[in-house]
Specification:
Length: 70
């Protein structure tokens, strides 16, 4: 069961879980602030973990079949 009283993760203000429309946040403002912080944190992570993909198309040189003279 959920606790009747929860604290807003953004501003730590207590709110009633049963009636809070933006739970677990106390308001839409706090929800947007938390969401914005999360997105900023995600973008802050450097993307150097992704391996560089080699250009497979460049190495895909197929020999010509047949001859136009034949
Ligand atoms: Zn809040």
């Amino acid at each position: 069961m959920s606790p009747a009283r929860v604290k807003c993760p953004t501003c730590r203000r207590e709110l009633d879980w049963q009636t809070a429309p933006f739970r677990p946040f106390c308001s839409e403002r706090c929800r947007l602030i938390d969401l914005g912080a999360w997105l900023t944190e995600q973008r802050a992570i450097p993307d150097d973990a992704a391996p560089m993909q080699e250009d497979a198309a460049a190495a895909d040189e197929k020999p010509l079949k047949g001859s136009p003279d034949a």
